[in-house]
Amino acid sequence: MKTKKYYSQPDVPTSITCWSFTWMIFLFSMLLWLEITVFQVWTLSFLIVFLIVAFIELKGRYLQITNEKVKFHALIIYNNQEIEREKIQSVTRNKWGVVKIHTENETYEFLMMPKTAKKVVAELS
After folding, report:
1. What's the rounded Cα separation, in Å, for the pair 81 and 23?
2. Where are the transmembrane segments (predicted)?
3. What per-residue confidence (pLDDT) applies to 80?
4. Is the CB of residue 32 less than 8 Å from the CB of residue 46?
């Protein structure tokens, strides 16, 4: 089987925290624009930084599924970056796209688009 890649975001609290900091960059660029009242290079530079950070956050987090394991790619590396497929006990999803992967010791949560979540559950079940 080929390696399949599905874009995702971490669990809900982590996603809210990360995206809040990202949106702070955007709001700071808008604040500069309103303070100076003219669109200047500072506003443009912070807007470009926001776009780069948002692109990295969207494309840098994904699940890579192979026959042997499920590997998590994240921006900040943390423990247990991969799960062997035989250790997965169940995989569930809800209608909003939250996928939960249950193992013996832990439950992993990921946010995905609902159609992508459906594909992941079908792939891992």
Report:
1. 27
2. 12-33, 39-58
3. 59
4. yes
Could you tell me which residues are beta bridge partners of residue 116?
none
pLDDT above 90 (res 34): no
Q: pLDDT tens for residues 59-110?
A: 988 889 988 898 888 877 766 588 888 888 989 998 888 888 998 888 888 8
Quick check: 43 and 33 in contact, CB under 8 A?
yes
Using left for φ > 0, alpha for ψ between -120 and 50, and beta otherwise, residue 19 falls in alpha
Give the pLDDT of residue 79: 61
Cα Rg, the chain, nearest whole Å: 18
Q: Do residues 80 and 73 make contact, with C-beta atoms less than 8 angstroms apart?
A: no
Sheet strands side by side (includes 107-111): 90-93, 98-102, 107-111
Contact 61, 77 (CB under 8 A): no
